[in-house]
Amino acid sequence: MPRIIFMNDRLVPEDEAKVSVFDHGLLYGDGVFEGLRSYSGTVFRLDAHLDRLWASARAICLEIPLSKATVAKAVNDTLAANKLSDGYVRLVVTRGAGSLGLDPNRTTNPQVIVIADTISLYPREFYEQGLKIVTAATQRVQSAALSPRIKSLNYLNNIMAKLEGLRAGCVEALMLNHKGEVAECTGDNVFVVRSGVLLTPPPDAGILEGITRNAVMELARAAGIDCREATLTRHDLYTADECFLTGTAAEVIPVVDIDGRIIGAGTPGPVTKQLTTAFHALVRK
Ligand code: PXG
C-alpha cells in the first residue's frame, strides 16, 4: 500500500510527493520540522507541536504559507488517509526551490509536507531493562552559534553524536554543551532522580525543550514529585539514583548505564516506572 502524503494543499500518493533538487531544504538544510505521535486517533499535544514549529520557522524568517488550523487539519487528514490511529507524523516545512546560493530571498514556495507512518520504538527489552548510553565527544552547538531550540532540517550535530553512540554499541548518546554541562541526548531529553527529586537541564543548557519533557514534568508535579530544572554534570548522572530519557518517539525510557557506570541499582527505578505509567495513561486519555 503506497502511503498518502500531504503536500502543500492536497493529499497525494507517495510516488507523486516530490521536492525540487533546488529546494533549499535539500541544498542547505534550510527548513524546520516536527515529529508527532497519534494515540487512538488523537494527536498528542498537537497545538504545542504547531507552536514549536511556528517558533522554529519564525526564528529562521521562514513564513509558513498555511495557517496553524490548516496544518492541524492536514495532520489529521493524513493520518486518516493512511488509516492510522496509532502512528507517527513528520511535519516538514522547507524554504522552497531557489537559486544555487544561500540567499533565502531568492527562493519561492516553501513546501509543507506531512508524512504519517507507523512508529518504530526502541525494542521492548530496552524499556524493561534500560538503555546503556555513552557521552559523545561531539558537543551540542552553542546557542550563540545556532539555537538548539530551533528544530531545523540541519541535524548534523545530533547525527555526529548518534554515530558515536552507535559505534559504541548504544542507540542513544549523551551530549554536553560547550561548558561541559549535560544538555540532552541526540533525539531525547534527559532526567535524573536524586534523593527523590526529579532534575532535568534548563532550556538555556542548550536543549530542545521537548514536549514529552514538559508533559513528564507536569505529571511529576501532579504526583507530588519535586521536579526542578538544574544544571547537571556527568557526575550528577553517574551518581544519580535513576536516569531516563523522554521524546516523542521513545516516550519515557530508562537508562541504566552511562559511560560504563551503572546507574542506581542498574535496573529501571521506581520513579521512572511511575512516570512511565502516568505518561501512558496521559497519552491515552
Ligand atoms: N531533543 C532533541 C534534539 C530532539 O530532536 C527531543 C529532544 C525530544 O522532544 P519531544 O518534543 O519529541 O519530546 C527531540 C525530538 C528521530 C526523531 O527520528 C527524534 C525527535 C523528533 C523526531 C524524530 O529520532 N526528537
Descriptive account of the structure:
The chain has 285 residues and is an alpha+beta fold. It has two domains: 4-117, 2-Layer Sandwich (D-amino Acid Aminotransferase, Chain A, domain 1), CATH 3.30.470; 124-283, D-amino Acid Aminotransferase, subunit A, domain 2 (D-amino Acid Aminotransferase, Chain A, domain 2, Alpha-Beta Barrel), CATH 3.20.10. The chain has eight helices and 17 strands. The chain has helices at residues 24-28, 46-59, 68-81, 124-129, 156-167, 211-222, 234-238, 270-283; strands at 4-7, 10-13, 31-39, 42-43, 87-94, 97-98, 107-108, 112-117, 131-135, 173-176, 182-185, 189-194, 197-200, 227-229, 242-247, 251-258, 261-262. Strands 9, 10, 11, 12, 13, 14, 15, 16 and 17 form a nine-stranded mixed sheet that branches. A six-stranded antiparallel sheet has the order 2-1-8-5-3-4. It has a two-stranded antiparallel ribbon with strand order 6-7. Strand 3 and strand 4 form a beta hairpin. 44% of the residues are buried. The model has no long low-confidence stretch (mean pLDDT 97). The protein binds 3-[O-phosphonopyridoxyl]--amino-benzoic acid (PXG). The site of 3-[O-phosphonopyridoxyl]--amino-benzoic acid has 15 residues, from helix 6 and strand 15.
